[in-house]
Amino acid sequence: MADGAASTGDVAAQASMSNSAPQDFLVQYIVVRKDLWTSSGWPLGSVVAQACHASSAAMWMYKDEPDTQAYLAPDNIDQMRKVVLELKDEAALKKLGETLSAAGVGHKLWVEQPENYPTCLATRPYPKSQVAQYFKKFQLSKAPIG
């Protein structure tokens, strides 16, 4: 499906908070391209805006998923967990998107318009145990501030 959309029947869409392990928590992964600030000279604010776009789009695309509803529930709003990771470049970002799509992991690949320039990717909320395996090889984003 386009933009990493997964159908309700996909493996990734089958979990809910009630089925997750006691220490498991809902998390949204956001992955940004490191070359945006290292090679292309994007300011931090522009990179953060891309991550926000991808996160918001993923939430909207998967708003009917039980995990997304639980993540955004009024009682949980102050316990949101996001993990922001970095990867090398556009090719690595597209490869991750393909891997997630093949595994049925719901996500949004954010493509900046009108440039048609892929900048980052965000998953829908998942119990960490269900999706962490896809992100273990990436490191936490360490974009410089200032």
TrEMBL record:
**What are the entry keywords?**
Hydrolase
Coiled-coil region:
none
Q: Example GO molecular function term?
A: peptidyl-tRNA hydrolase activity
List the catalysed reactions.
an N-acyl-L-alpha-aminoacyl-tRNA + H2O = an N-acyl-L-amino acid + a tRNA + H(+)
List the Pfam families: PTH2
Entry's EC annotation: 3.1.1.29
Looking up InterPro entries in the UniProt record yields:
Pep_tRNA_hydro_II_dom_sf, PTH2, PTRHD1
Query: Which PANTHER family does the UniProt record give?
Result: PEPTIDYL-TRNA HYDROLASE PTRHD1-RELATED (PTHR46194)
List the protein's name.
peptidyl-tRNA hydrolase
Originating species: Chlamydomonas incerta
